[in-house]
């Protein structure tokens, strides 16, 4: 059975507001989705400020992207969310965000390396960068699915970041962890050479990721 989120609308709304509070998005940017027990998807609407967003603004769509309920238009990035949810049964939630430092890496087409102790436990390894694809397109979803293989996050070339987890809280933790790591690595690069962890260490840590991903 596919991973789902209990009380999905409440959890999505709370996580969206926390994402804004943490500075991982600005204004109406970014989006969050969560799979419900019946297979439908609760997703944030398009162009609604997170500070003003209410439960009534959230949208329910099916796995094909068709509207089930709600009065708003679903996020313009719904195809990205649906691609990840269709590809990975163990993913219950998808978060797309625009954190500053992680997006710097995405614009430079550089992965965020797993060079901070225990990073791979939560992410699975280095955070890959997708090939460029236009925002809102099926191709973007396809590229994200490839980059998310065995990973909790991927950078979207020239755009931002996507994170997946069993629930929105876990996906937000991954988002914040990647952003913090990207900031540290960027700063360390200004100080001198970046020293990556021994491959054997990251391999060991990555072996724990599959358990973390399942919550």
Automatic annotation (TrEMBL):
One of its GO terms (molecular function) is aldehyde-lyase activity. GO terms for biological process: pentose catabolic process. The keyword Lyase applies. InterPro entries: Aldolase_class_II_sugar_metab (IPR050197), Aldolase_II/adducin_N (IPR001303), Aldolase_II/adducin_N_sf (IPR036409). One of its GO terms (cellular component) is cytosol. Pfam families: Aldolase_II. SUPFAM superfamilies: AraD/HMP-PK domain-like. Keywords: Lyase, Metal-binding. Residues 10-186 form the Class II aldolase/adducin N-terminal domain. The keyword Protein biosynthesis does not apply. NCBIfam families: PRK05874.1. This is Unannotated protein.
């Amino acid at each position: 059975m596919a991973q789902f989120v209990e009380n999905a609308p409440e959890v999505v709304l709370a996580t969206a507001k926390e994402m804004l509070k943490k500075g991982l998005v600005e204004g109406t940017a970014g989006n969050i989705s969560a799979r419900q027990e019946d297979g439908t998807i609760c997703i944030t609407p398009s162009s609604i400020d997170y500070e003003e967003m209410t439960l009534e603004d959230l949208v329910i769509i099916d796995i094909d992207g068709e509207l089930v309920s709600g009065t708003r238009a679903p996020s313009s990035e719904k195809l990205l969310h649906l691609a990840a949810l269709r590809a990975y049964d163990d993913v219950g939630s998808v978060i797309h965000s625009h954190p500053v430092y992680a997006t710097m890496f995405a614009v430079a087409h550089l992965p965020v390396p797993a060079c901070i102790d225990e990073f791979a436990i939560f992410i699975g390894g280095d955070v890959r960068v997708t090939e460029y694809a236009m925002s809102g397109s099926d191709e973007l979803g396809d590229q994200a699915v490839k980059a998310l293989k065995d990973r909790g996050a991927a950078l979207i070339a020239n755009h931002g970041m996507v994170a997946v987890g069993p629930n929105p809280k876990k996906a937000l933790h991954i988002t914040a962890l990647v952003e913090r790591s990207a900031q540290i690595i960027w700063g360390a690069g200004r100080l001198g050479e970046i020293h990556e962890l021994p491959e054997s260490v990251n391999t060991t840590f990555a072996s724990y990721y599959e358990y973390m991903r399942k919550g």
